Every structure is written in C-alpha cells, then in structure tokens.
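Design job #97: recover the sequence.
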C-alpha cells in the first residue's frame, strides 16, 4: 500500500511555488549559466585532489575557513576598515541578508529584469518585493527608482553591477544618488558583483575611498563565475558592524571544508583563473562582433561573461514560420531559436518571457572559442538572412 503524507504543515505560498529547475546539460555545449568553460589542466587537478585528500572531513569547518577569509580579504584588497563574511554561494548570502532584515512589513527592491533570486528569496522569507522596470536601454529609470524607494522605503535595494541578464553596468552617478537616498533613512544597498572578474569597474574602490558615503553599502561577490561554480563560495564585504550583524544569522558551518580548501587552492593559482577570465573577455568581443554582423540581431554591450541578444520579429518571424502578433511572435521566435540550438546540442537561456523588456531576447554565456564557433554556426543556420526582394 502506498502512503501519501499530508503536507498540511507546509505554507500555502510554498505550495504555490515551483522548485528551481536545473536543466540536464549532459552532452550539451553548456552556455546557459555563466560558468567558466575552462577546467584545470591535469597536473593542477591532481594537485587539488592531493590537497583535498588531506582534509579532515570528520571535523566541522574551522581554521581553514578562517584561512580562506584572510586569503579572500587579501585577494580582493578589502583593506583594514572593511570586514568579510563567507557564504555557501551568493545565493545563500542573499537569503541571510533578507533574513536579517525581515522585520514585519519590510521590503526588498530591485530593478527588473534582474537576478531572479532577489524576488524569490524575499518571497520565501516573507518580505515584500518591489521590482522597478529598467529603461528600454537597460539603464536605471531614476525617476521610477527614486519614487519607488520613497514610497516603499525598502530595507534592502539589490543592484547587480553588472546586471544579469542585461550584462551592463549602470551609471555610477545614478547609483550614488540611490545610495544617498537609501542611506538617508538607514536602509542598505547591496552591490552584487557576481560578474566582477569580467567587468571594468568595482564598487569596492568607492567603498574604500569614500567610506562615509558608502557606510550603508554591502558588496557581494562570488567565485562561481570565475571557475568555482561547483564549490559554492560567495562573500560579502562591508563595515564590520554590518558583518557583525550578519554573522548572527549565518549557520555556523555554512562553508564546507572541501569547498574552502578548493577555494584556497584556486587563490594560490589565481594567475590561472585570471588568464581564463582574460580569454573569456577576449572571446566576448569576438562573439559580439560575429553576432552583430548580418544576423538581424541586436547584441547588447556586455561587462560580464554573457551576451544578451534580441531577435527582431519583423525580420525573422516569416522565416521561422511563426504566426501571431505582438509579444507572442517574439516569444515564439525566441523559443524556436532556443529549441533549434538545443536540438543541435547547444544549451543557452531563453529569457524572452522573463520580463516585457526582454521580448525576443536570448542570453548566451561566453564559452571557449570552439564552443562559441559552434554556437555562431548553429545560430547562423537557424537565422538564414531573408532573400532580398
Ligand atoms: C547577479 C547574480 N548574483 C548572484 C548569483 C549567484 O551566484 P552564486 O553561484 O554565488 O550563488 C548569480 C548567478 O547567476 C547572479 O547572476
């Protein structure tokens, strides 16, 4: 006899959610999740294996995690006036920040389209979430942001710098104005620099140079995009008072000894990861140039390891045999191209239905030169130029 337990105890809003779906990518050219496509060469893999073999997994994480904290502070040049806290990926840190600020009626605000976990985490932890649309060019809509902040007085404003999925950096002057506005009522702005290794700017420099102006700022980073997505190491940097408060909600052993050892190893070989990031940035330029030529696409400028591109329905809908009008054409076309690439073993992300500003948009992670060539060829095959009349 099969037994079905009662889930009565689970919150109604949790029943209504779907679990985060991770696509099975086995055998695919994987360009969907902003991972570093490069693995370590075999001698380094062996050396890492040797290091991990010496880790005492019978003990709770302790001293080595403190070593990692120190190593990351040195690596990121955090300085003596700021403190650092580790998380099991930035995803966990977003949850801990929300948890720490979840006073009754508290609110989280972020520009949209943006990283989905800001809304997801707020909802899970019972905070109100407010999304403010970006401008059509994906720059911050300052009147809308300032009005929403004035109205909702969010405890936390998340700004991804660069943003996901639009891949751009927002105007520093605009960000400074938002920080001033949020600081005035003692809220906090989280500068999420998940894509910093590929970016030309970092807010950390301003936090060091202008500590007073940035006292209400928490910087968040991750080692995921630079090559350790599997090891789940994120960190926040802020005034020690912020870190002291956040430490109270951090599960004591949130970072595994194996992950910490792996990250320490990576920092000792930071030249290898830096060289890989440089290759990715060079490939980003090549991919942008190739995709911008004659495919009927808009490719947006990127400061991250992903490219956002928009298919133009008026050019391509007839080719794809897509019927309909308005946003539906763009969505059908995006899923036609996404499906066509998948059928050829290439996995990217269809973001067309994620937000009205992304109609007809696809996001691709920058891969190795071979992967990018395969992607360009497959895409060009799907988007054959319309015949001249
Ligand atoms: C803006 C942004 N922040 C944070 C994350 C999560 O990173 P982690 O792997 O450290 O949880 C992502 C992942 O895609 C992201 O795009």
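Job complete. Output follows.
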């Amino acid at each position: 006899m099969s037994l079905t337990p009662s889930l009565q105890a689970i919150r109604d809003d949790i029943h209504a959610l779907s679990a985060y779906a991770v696509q099975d990518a086995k055998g695919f050219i994987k360009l969907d999740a902003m991972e570093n496509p490069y693995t370590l060469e075999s001698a380094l893999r062996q050396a890492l294996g040797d290091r991990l073999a010496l880790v005492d997994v019978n003990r709770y994480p302790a001293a080595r995690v403190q070593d990692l904290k120190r190593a990351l502070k040195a690596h990121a040049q955090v300085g003596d006036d700021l403190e650092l806290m580790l998380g099991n990926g930035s995803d966990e840190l977003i949850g801990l920040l929300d948890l720490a600020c979840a006073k009754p009626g508290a609110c989280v605000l972020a520009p949209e389209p943006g990283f989905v976990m800001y809304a997801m985490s707020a909802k899970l932890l019972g905070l109100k979430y407010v999304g403010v649309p970006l401008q059509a060019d994906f720059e911050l809509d300052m009147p809308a942001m300032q009005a929403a902040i004035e109205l909702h007085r969010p405890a936390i404003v998340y700004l991804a710098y660069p943003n996901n999925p639009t891949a751009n950096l927002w105007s520093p002057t605009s960000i400074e104005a938002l920080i001033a506005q949020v600081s005035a009522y003692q809220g906090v702005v989280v500068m999420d620099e998940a894509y910093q290794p590929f970016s030309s700017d970092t807010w950390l420099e301003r936090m060091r140079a202008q500590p007073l102006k940035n006292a209400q700022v928490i910087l968040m980073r991750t080692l995921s995009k630079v090559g350790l997505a599997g090891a789940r190491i994120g960190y926040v940097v802020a005034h020690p008072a912020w870190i002291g408060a956040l430490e109270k909600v951090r599960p004591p052993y949130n970072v595994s000894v194996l992950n910490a050892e792996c990250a320490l190893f990576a920092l000792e070989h930071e030249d290898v990861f830096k060289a890989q990031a440089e290759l990715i940035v060079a490939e980003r330029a090549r991919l942008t140039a190739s995709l911008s030529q004659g495919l009927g696409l808009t490719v947006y400028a990127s400061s991250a390891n992903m490219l956002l591109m928009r298919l133009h329905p008026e050019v391509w809908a007839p080719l794809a045999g897509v019927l309909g009008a308005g946003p539906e054409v763009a969505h059908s076309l995006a899923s036609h191209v996404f499906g066509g690439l998948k059928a050829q073993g290439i996995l990217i992300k269809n973001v067309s239905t994620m937000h009205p500003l992304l109609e007809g948009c696809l996001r691709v992670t920058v891969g190795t030169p071979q992967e990018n060539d395969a992607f360009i060829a497959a895409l060009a095959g799907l988007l054959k130029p319309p015949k001249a009349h």
